[in-house]
Amino acid sequence: MDKHQPNPEQQKIINHINGAILVLAPVGTGKTFVLSERVARAIKNGIPIEKILCLTFTNRAAKEMSERLWRMHPEEFRQITIKTFHGLCAQMLRIEAINIGLPTDFVIYDDSDCKEIIKEVFGYQKNQDIQRTFFDIAKYKSQACTEELSFLYPTENIYQPLGLNFAKKAIRYQSILQERHAIDFADLVFFVRAMLNCKPEISQRWQERFDFVQIDEIQDTHICEYEIVRHLASRTRNLATIGDLDQTIYEWRGSEPDLVIQQFTEDFQPKKYSLTFNYRATQTLLNAASSFANSFEQRQTQITPASSCKPGKLIKTHFAENEQTEAIWIGEQIQNLAANNQRFPYNRVAILTRTHKRIEIISKVLEQLNIPCITIEQYQFFMRQEVKDTLAYLKLILNPFDTGSFRRILLRPTRGIGARTIQNVITEGEKCGFYLTDMGSIQTFVDGDPFSNLISAYKSGIIVVFDVETTGLSVTNDEVIEIAALKLVNGKVEAEFHQHILNTISVGDSQHIHGYTDKELAEKGRPANQVFSEFFDFAQNAFLIGHNVGFDIKMVTAHASKAGITIPKFQWGDTWNLANRFIDLDSYSLENLAKKLGLPNLPTHKALDDTRTTVELLGYLIPKIESKSDYRQALVYRYGEEFESLAEQIETWRDDTQKLRPADLLEKLLTESGLQAYYETDPQRENNLLELINIFRQKDKPEINSDTALRSILEFTALAKNLDQISQQDNQVMIITIHQSKGLEFDSIFIAGASQEEFPSFLSLRNDNLEEEKRLFYVAMTRAKQQLFISGFLEDSRGYSKVPSEFIDSIPDKYLQLE
Ligand SMILES: Nc1ncnc2c1ncn2[C@@H]1O[C@H](COP(=O)(O)OP(=O)(O)OP(=O)(O)O)[C@@H](O)[C@H]1O
C-alpha cells in the first residue's frame, strides 16, 4: 500500500463507488493514487473483482496501477482488467472475431509494419510522406460516423475527403492487411465500435461484462474511444472519468476534451469532484508553474501546494551560445547533481524536449561525458533490425499469411532469393489465388499447388467439415462442448457426426452465444475422451475444413490432449481464407458470404447448421480454386525450388510451437535459421538477441500451452510502446519528448531547447496557435518533484540567431535563477 493516507477530498472520491463521477483536478494532486484506492474500495464494497475495468493512457500507467493493486490485493488482482485502450480493444476483438468475420488468428501490425505497406501501396520514399499518410488513414478511420461503421473492413467513402485516388490506395492498404490476417491500431477501435454498433447481441454481452469502469486522462481520450467506454458502462452507470484539462496535449491527434466531457455529462450526469493539493513538487516549482498557467487563454485549474511541500530551489535557467554548448551545460549540471554520490540515482533525472533532433544532440554529448543515459530512439528495442528479423520468423510461424514477415525473413540470412523472384511470385500469384507465403508451406511442394490435396480430397477422397462450440476463449481453461461435422465422400455428404460434451467448467457468458445451459449439457453431454476419440475415428485420414477455424483447431487440440486423447495429424483448410482469395467481397463472415452468394442454408450459430453452410460454401469455391490450378503449378515450377528447404524448416518450427516453450523455440530458431551466426559478429546485436530470449522467458506463462503463450508474447511486442520497456531499474537519465513524459515524475527535470521556434514550435508560431504548446510546457514543468532546469541556445546549427522561448517571460523572475 502507498505510504500516505488519502486526504479528505481524495477520500470522498474513493468512497463514491456507485454512480458516475467526473474528477477534473490539477496536476500532481493524486488522481492516479485515487484511482487505485477506488478499486480497493470497490472490492471491499463487494463489486466482483472480475467485473472491474480500469483504462489507462499508457502501458506504463497500466503497469503502475497493476503493481499498486497487486500490493493491496496480491491474491485477486490478476482478475481485474487493467488495460490501455488498445489493449482492451484487442481483447474484445479476440473474443468476438468469429462473430464479426475477422480471422480468429488475426495479428496486430505495429506502426512500422503498417508503414511498410503504405510505402509499397502509395509508392512513397520520404518518411514524412509515409508518416502523414499513416496518420491520415488512422484519422479517417477514427472519424468514421455511425453510418460508416460496419464490421466490414473500412470502405472507400470514409476517405472521400482526401480524394478518390487516396481512397483507392487506402482500400488497397486495407485489403493487404486483410490478406495477411492483420489489423492496425486504428482498426482495433474501428472494429470494436462497429461491432457494438451493428451487432445487438454482442453489444448486450459487453454491457453485461463490467460493473465498475474507470478511465484515466480523459482530456486526451478521443470521442470514438469514449463511445466504447460509454457503452461498457451504460448498464450500471458506474463510470469514473478523471483528468486535467490543463494537461491536454493530444488535440493535434484528434482528442476533443470539451466534447468528450460535455457528452459524458449529458449521458451520465456525473457528480463532479476536484482535488486541491499538489503533493508532487516544491512550493517554488508549483508557484512558478501556476504563474505560467496564468498565460493560458482559458486556465481550468488552480494549483495549491500541500502543507508538506518544501520551499525548494529556484529554477536554473541558461541560454547557451549554441546547441552543442547547451547540451554540455546540461551534462555539467547532471555531473554537479551526482558529485560526491557514488550511488546517484540517474534514473530520477529526465531531460524533456520538444523535438527528436534535440534528443539526438543531447544524448551524444552525455555519452561523451560518460553520463549514463537512454533515449527512446536508442531504446526502440522491438524496432531493432535483429529483433524485428527474429520476430518475423515467429510471426510467420503463427500466421501463415503474414507476407510482410515472410518477405523479411527472405532478406536475412540471405537465401539467394532475389527481389525480382519475390515480385514475380506476388504479381503472377495475384491472378491465381496464390500468396507469396504459400512458398513457405510444405503443402505447396507436394504437387506444385497448395490446393491440390484439397481438390483431390473433394473430388475423390474424404473431407470432414466441422464446427465446434466452446465455453469461452481461453484455450487453456475453456472446453469444447459441441462438435458437429459432416463427412464428404467424393464431394457428397455421406455421414454426420454431432455430439455434446459434458462440461467440467460452467458455460458462463458463452451461453448467450451457443444457447446451451450447464443443465442441458449435463443431460445430453458425454465424457470428453469418448467424444474426441469418436470424432477422430470419424475424421480418420480426412482433410479437415471449417470456416474461420484457427481458434477451433486449437480448442480441439488442447481439450483433447487434456482428456488424454492422442491427436492424429490432419491436413486442414479454412473456407475464410479460401473465400478471401477467390471471391471479392467486403466481409468474409459466414453470414455475409451465405447472403451474398445466395447459399441455400443461412448460418444460425448452431454448430450443425453452420457446418451445412460451410459445406455449401466449399462446393461454391472448389470449381473456382480448381480453374486456376494450372497457373499455380506453373508458378511453383518456375520459382518454387529456391523456397522448398525454407518451407520444410518452417513446417518443423510450426510443429515445435506445440512442444517447446516460447524461449526454447526462439533459441532453436535462432540457431537453425542462421540468424545467430549472421549476427554473432556484432556483439551489440548478439546481446539484443539474448535480451529478447530473456524477455520471452519473463513473459512466458507456464500454465498455458506453449503456442498460446507465444501468441500472447508476440501480441505484447506489438502493443508495447518503447517507453514501457525501458527498465526503471536501469540507472540512466531518460531523454524523452514531453509527450512521452506524460504522467511520469522525476526528482530533477531539464527542459531543453527552450528557444523561440523550437519551443514554441515554428509551426505553432506561424499558425498563431500557442495554446497546446503552452500546455506542453506546463506538463514539462510539472514533472519535477525537486528541481527544474530550463535551457536553450542562441544560435542554431545552421547559424541562425535564436532568442529564448517567450514562455520564460511568463514565469516571474523571482522563481528563476538566470545564469
Ligand atoms: N494524500 C497524499 N499524501 C501524500 N502524497 C500524496 C497524496 N496523494 C498523492 N500523493 C503523491 O503525489 C504525487 C502525485 O500523485 P499522482 O501521480 O497520483 O498525481 P496525478 O494527479 O495523477 O498527477 P498528474 O496529473 O501529473 O498525472 C505522487 O508522488 C503521489 O504519491
Automatic annotation (TrEMBL):
Its EC number is 5.6.2.4. ATP binds at residues 25-32. InterPro entries: DExx_box_DNA_helicase_dom_sf, DNA_helicase_UvrD-like_C, DNA_helicase_UvrD/REP, P-loop_NTPase, Ribonucl_H, RNaseH-like_sf, RNaseH_sf, UvrD-like_ATP-bd. It catalyses: ATP + H2O = ADP + phosphate + H(+); Couples ATP hydrolysis with the unwinding of duplex DNA by translocating in the 3'-5' direction. This is DNA 3'-5' helicase. One of its GO terms (cellular component) is cytosol. Coiled coil: none annotated. Residues 4-282 form the UvrD-like helicase ATP-binding domain. The keyword Isomerase applies. Belongs to the helicase family. UvrD subfamily. One of its GO terms (biological process) is recombinational repair. Residues 283-743 form the UvrD-like helicase C-terminal domain. Keywords: ATP-binding, DNA-binding, Exonuclease, Helicase, Hydrolase, Isomerase, Nuclease, Nucleotide-binding. One of its GO terms (molecular function) is exonuclease activity. Gene3D superfamilies: 1.10.10.160, P-loop containing nucleotide triphosphate hydrolases, PCRA, domain 4, Ribonuclease H-like superfamily/Ribonuclease H. Pfam families: RNase_T, UvrD-helicase, UvrD_C.
